What does this fold into?
Amino acid sequence: MSLQRARADSPTWRRSRYVPSSRAFARPRVSLAPSRAAPATPAIDAHPLGVSASQDPASAKADEEKKDWTHAYADDLQTDIYTEVNADPKATVHSTEWRKIMRGDPVEINPSVGSGLKIMTVDEWTSRWKRNDRFPECLACGGTATKEHHFMQTWCRGKKQFESETLCMDCHMFSWRSYSDPDFMLPEEYDKVRWEKMVRDKAAADGVARA
Ligand SMILES: [Zn+2]
It folds into this structure.
């Protein structure tokens, strides 16, 4: 009895048995919408008391806020953009679905329009994706009937990094573009460098003091 019982009662065993199937349905929902929305335009003109525009800090701020930030991630680049052309997405997002679409298998319906699975054409599956007007060209065929399915940008201390991947509706190839400022550092990398410099400076100062 003991073996049978132990296996059936063991939570570890149950978990390893059941996780794979439940995980298939609990796939994380990744938004198709690029997180690139420009900062909301402030309602400067709507101020009921009519604040004078001659106040310098305020008008400078207004000018700053009027700037179109939509594609600022790709302004004033200091080095080349890295590119790749692939038959499958390089970004992991949508890669499973893409394989299914290519095989003619059903894929999950966008939760905002319904639920369940459906066999879809590429056009149908990508109907909510938008073109990135900063990078409209397909790197494979040069066409501009492209839609972006992955976009990510990181800004840190004025330095920038971004990734964009688009799908061409004409040739169905994926165009990948990524960029990183040569001196881009994430906050933790920046802190590490600063910390190491502090340690070096301290050691140098101690050395001088001892001499
Ligand atoms: Zn193309």
